[in-house]
Design a protein that fits this description.
CATH class: Alpha Beta
Largest sheet: 4 strands, antiparallel
Helix content: 40-55%
Order of helices and strands: HEHEEHEH
Strand content: 15-25%
Structural class: alpha+beta
CATH topology: Alpha-Beta Plaits
Length: 122
């Protein structure tokens, strides 16, 4: 009985995690400025905005929250940028622009919870 409840709670938490990540896209290999320690949120937002203007030709600000992946920067590695979009249609419009990134060394993909990734691998 308790085991079943625990599994149901795990499933509920996994569902809530995946719903909270539904509006997110992850961007890779966008340069990180750690000259003064840790890159500020404003610098990250500016870097992503410039990147989107140059590669995807999108000028309007459609992302609500933009931040680097958590953790301290490691020398020689670039942390991913997670962008949360205000509207799902904006996220989908951006996601469909992946063709502009092929061959550039940059990637963009949907963010999924570890539980969802594990289920997809099976």
């Amino acid at each position: 009985m308790l085991e079943k409840q625990r599994e149901e709670l795990r499933d509920d938490v996994a569902y809530l995690k995946s719903q909270s990540m539904r509006y997110n896209l992850v961007f890779t290999n966008i340069k990180e400025d750690n000259s003064s320690g840790n890159e500020t949120a404003e610098v990250t937002k500016t870097n992503l905005r410039i990147h989107l203007q140059e590669t995807v030709k999108i000028t309007k600000d459609i992302a609500d929250t933009i931040h680097r992946s958590p953790g301290q920067p490691v020398s020689g590695k670039i942390r991913n940028i997670v962008a949360k979009f205000t509207h799902f249609k904006d996220r989908e419009m951006m996601r469909r622009q992946w063709k502009h990134l092929s061959g550039t060394g940059y990637q963009m993909f949907e963010q999924f919870s570890p539980e969802v990734l594990e289920k997809r691998r099976k």
